[in-house]
Write a structure and sequence with these properties.
Radius of gyration: 20 Å
Order of helices and strands: HHHHHHHEEHHHHH
Strand order of the largest sheet: 1-2
Number of domains: 1
Low-confidence stretches: 180-196
Distance between the termini: 42 Å
Length: about 200
């Protein structure tokens, strides 16, 4: 995208970091707005699993949630952000120069239009229960899509939300872990089964 912007093939793009910082660094673009300004605490990525996975392999499912939570918390720390810069600059990952990665991960971020933004506006991995699949977050996204005219029938779509955004499973996974790490697979499956 940055190359296309620099060559005049596109007038702009919407993307996460580090692509905005790369456009600013190359002098071919600037960042008009960041997601946190447009829709604070919005849903950015979704981990979607099939119901049968939760029922048949609950230990793996809960392990996946634990791993995501642990990684997210680490990435939100300064030590973790520095480690991300070290990792993502490698050619086998993004191969992006460290200075570009640091702009959004460590800040401050030069928006390229004379304005600066703090790194708190970028890449929030776990802040404010960001990994909890809450119905309120889902409804917020649905409402924004409705306002933009992206959904022909938002009421119909809203009926699917409780089946897709399962805060109960997320909370139960961590409750099961907190109460006992020696519980049997049957105990964990029972938690999933009671959380339709």
């Amino acid at each position: 995208m940055v190359r296309s912007l620099a060559e005049g093939l596109i007038d702009g793009f919407c993307a996460g970091e580090p692509w905005n910082a790369a456009a600013v660094a190359e002098g071919c673009g600037f960042c008009v707005a960041v997601g946190a300004e447009l829709m604070p605490q919005h849903v950015e990525k979704v981990l979607l699993v099939r119901k049968d996975l939760v029922l048949r392999r609950p230990e793996e499912f809960y392990g996946l949630l634990r791993g995501l939570n642990t990684a997210s918390r680490r990435c939100d720390s300064m030590e973790g952000r520095n480690a991300l810069v070290d990792l993502l600059q490698k050619p086998e990952w993004l191969g992006t120069p460290a200075e570009i990665l640091k702009a959004s991960l460590l800040g401050p971020f030069d928006r390229g239009n004379g304005r600066m933004a703090s790194s708190a506006q970028f890449n929030q991995f776990c802040d404010a229960d960001g990994n909890v699949p809450s119905l309120s977050a889902a409804r917020s996204v649905l409402n924004a899509m409705k306002v933009c005219g992206m959904l022909p029938n938002p009421e119909e779509a809203s009926l699917e939300l409780p089946m897709l955004f399962r805060e109960d499973l997320h909370r139960n996974a961590f409750a099961a872990i907190a109460s006992s790490t020696s519980g049997s697979g049957a105990d964990v499956a029972a938690i999933a089964l009671t959380s339709h």
